[in-house]
Amino acid sequence: MTEPQYITLDHGSGGGRTAQLIEELLLPALSNPHLSPLGDGALLNLSGPLAFSTDSFVIDPIFFPGGDIGKLAVCGTVNDLAMCGAVPKYLSLGMILEEGFPVADLQTIITSLAATAASCGVQVVTGDTKVVERGHGHGIYLNTSGIGEVKWPGLSPQTIQPGDQILVSGTVGDHGTAVMLARSGMLQGDELTSDCMPLHQLAAAALEVGGVRVLRDPTRGGVATVLNEFVEGTALCAQLHEYAVPVRPQVDAACRLLGLDPLYCANEGKLLAVVAPETASAVLDALHSTPGGENAAIIGSITTQFEGRAVLKTSYGAHRVLSKLSGAQLPRIC
Amino acid sequence: MLCEADFRRPQGVERLVQAIGSPDLPPMRLMEVCGTHTMALARTGVRQLLPPQVQLISGPGCPVCVTPAPVMDEVLRLASLPGVTLATYGDLMRVPGSKPGFDLRRQKALGADVQVVYSPMDALELAKAHPTRQVVFLGVGFETTAPGTALAVLEAQRLGLTNFSLLCLLKATPPALRALLAQEDFGIDGFLCPGHVATILGSEAFAFLPQDYQKPAVVAGFEAGDLLAALHLLIQQVKNHTPKLENEYIRAVSPQGNEMAQQVMAQVLEPKDDTWRGLGEIPHSGLGLRREFAPYDAALRFGFAPAPTSAPSPCRCGDVICGRIGPKECPLFGTACTPDTPVGPCMVSGEGACAAAYLYGRE
Fold first, then answer.
1. Which chain B residue has the Cα nearest residue A252?
2. Which residues of A267-305 are buried (b: 16+ CB within 10 A; e: fewer)?
3. pLDDT of residue A79
4. Which domains does chain B have, with CATH numbers?
């Protein structure tokens, strides 16, 4: 058995060890005609209007139930592009590694990243690696930027109208609670897993039906925060029905224990769609028949009842304003 | 036996709402003592289901919120001492000291080692894992968290840990209620008593409310069905002038409570006079470490000395908590005191009376 290998400052020197890392670890997993020449940049052929997005990934823990930082780094940017009505095509990959990070872990992360990219039909076409001294980073940070070709233009919160329906592609709050519990070491096993997954197929399924006003993936801040962004400063109200919001029982229980609210917890594999009333049920059907959309639901509608607010109608018929999150959600004692 | 989910069923809740809503109710002000009740009322929207005659006032039952500013100043100082790791519950992170914006989030950003933990035992684990650090657990809470906190001290003693200590800021609920009731013009007609505290102390710990003060009192659980069932009992008592102690939360609360937890508390902790943000000093309202546990007392180890509350604060949380004024009548409301820059306890808690008024526009 060979000794375990660790990232050293040499791996970021730009010299021989950097080349070795690229050729032995990155290229075998990510190889494609755009990346393999290893030029200063990638030369791409694209057409029509483009969507361009970037996201950085600093998640702790790096490996979490249901995913890892590599899978997340692809999903994060692919999903942002998909929400723009684009077909994701190309990604860049920036890595900041901490001295002493196990090469085996990096291998696992790159393998996972490559598999996720392949499943989305996107290619990593350019990249960069830096190494920081031990103590100056948390093992590994990733950044991905992505380009996609816009196939469904015109998605915007400004097109939302009263009567529109609000859809979510599945259960709410899975990622945030899974990561928080993993971080606390409170629960072990597969009871509660992140929903981290690419959304390009679900987005395409919804957009093909038509009538979609806007798509958003409710990551940090959760569903409640996105809905606030949709209606803030308008005469519209985003009104949810508590009974209609799909929440896994494990997530519900974890949130009750920690004093969190699933509507404010991050998702990494869910899309929120505002859809014209005429096509809402057809969009719902399309989501239901697409992998990952089995639990999709119409969770509310756009009204004018509380101007500029997101509101939850509780199971008991009362209204609760879903205000914007001020700072991070913190576990409560009381 | 009924389980938690049975107390969430909309059908049951609807029947309770109908039972409560009789037209001949007199106007009444009821206090939910416990912060978790305040949260549950907001989450379920139960407040809106009540007849207009019934007004619910949020009491002093959020231990985080009632920790005074000078105490937080000292906590912030302690957090920044070299070699100290401060272990705290998450919601203390944004409780301000005397200067607006000076909280543990800021100290952490400036380099203090502040760790959010979920239980005192997690703090003990930190001490075991980092023998060169002085781990201080910020022991905030009411009788609900006191037994666990006391147990952590006993465990530290058993393990002979020399780098673990407790900053004991624990508070006792019944003395605070007595202090409220002793105030003139305290206009509360009945109490929704805290189910979690009663789980430890027993429902009998609140028998003084009807016996000594002729105030109706009902111990309540935390689901919508619990809240409404308890409020129904409470409203009947107020309406019929029959103050007594009732227990709605029988699936968790016995008359005598958890005697083992009480023993651990009594072994490690003793009553002391204590200061509450917004209410001032209240006799016997704090729980301090007994003398024999002095080696684990962070206050002694680090010379913890909160400044006496100096100039009277313009913050009127005390009046809000007593139901004397509405949140918007406080001169700081919405200007100096907002959810992002809270001054008083009612704004610190996300569902405190002032925060709720600010966010939801409710009085």
1. B5
2. bbbbbbbbbbeebbeebbebbeebebbebbbbbbbbbee
3. 98
4. 27-312 (3.40.50.11740), 317-360 (no CATH)
